[in-house]
Amino acid sequence: MGLFSRRKSSESVAEPVEVDEAPESDDSLEPTVSGRPESRPLDDAERARIASGLEHAAALGVDVDDLESIGSHFDEQFRAVQADPAAGGGSDVIVDTFAIAIGEHLTRHSARDWAVVTDVFGTDLGLVAARADTVVVPHNLVGARWMRGETGWIPGVVAHLVQLRPRAR
């Protein structure tokens, strides 16, 4: 029984229901019954979105191979948008740009590749490992920290993700 369970110990427990954990596959990107994320390869529009984000990052001076560069430019853009909400195209553009920069860094420096990932929270660009045991959705990383006003986090967090799944040399 869980620490915060509302069931009294005297209440009966229903027998577990057997669930087919391997539903037949189709071409949709709906999460599986188990809640595990699904992924599919990128299409041309998604590759173009990544290319556009990388161009925007480069125009800001971001070197996607350097976590300090990504981090310092993110912090600078965050402060600029706090002072002027339209700066840099606004928060949506900045979050998208830095999510793509982080994702590209992970594709270059860890054993992960771009894909379209669908989980219980929705569908977005993400990164999957060859064994597909984990996924990273950079937009979630950046968006959540943006909303909390966090700066200085990119080098440590992204370096940790690289260490978890290093690219074989």
Radius of gyration: 20 Å
The major sheet is characterized as: 4 strands, antiparallel
Mean pLDDT over the residues? 84
Number of strands: 4
Derived from helix and strand composition plus strand pairing, the structural class reads alpha+beta
Q: Which CATH C-level class is it?
A: Mainly Alpha
Quaternary structure classification = single chain
CATH topology name: Four Helix Bundle (Hemerythrin (Met), subunit A)
Brief descriptors of the model:
alpha+beta, Four Helix Bundle (Hemerythrin (Met), subunit A), 12% strand, globular
Please provide a written account of the structure:
The chain is of the alpha+beta class and 169 residues long. The protein is 44% helix and 12% strand. It is built from 5 helices and 4 strands. The protein has a 4-stranded antiparallel β-sheet. Helix 1 crosses helix 3 and helix 2 packs antiparallel against helix 5. It is globular. The termini are far apart.
